[in-house]
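Researcher: Structure for this, please.
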Amino acid sequence: MPPELGDDLLSFWRERHLCTVTTLRQDGSPHVVPMGIVVDEVAGCAWGITSRGSQKVRNIRAADAAGAQVAVCQVDGRRWSTLEGLAVVRDDEASVREAVRRYAERYRQPRENPDRVAVRIMLTGILGNVR
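Model: Predicted structure, token format:
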């Protein structure tokens, strides 16, 4: 069951902030990079877009079928929020289109990228001082 997403938390995750995503390499060390993330409160998940050859995609795909443990974080002054969850890479056209649509609503229309994939994170936990 996904965690409850309060109004303040959803508002914070609708503001335009660049996030970081943390995945785990094969040796267990963290790989932390910037990424645009959009929360889907209805489905209890978050979406991102990236290139299929990226290290984060390789890290996620190396996990089992249930998904890879990831954390996405954003900070604005003293306000911060981290969403934890299980990530999977989706490369079907419908998932990529949905992730792009959501990304464009929060940030801007992304550039064309024939190697684009979607990352879907099923939320399992929330940390931070924005709830």
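Researcher: Any notable elements?
Model: The mean pLDDT is 97. Residues 1 and 124 are 7 Å apart (CA to CA).
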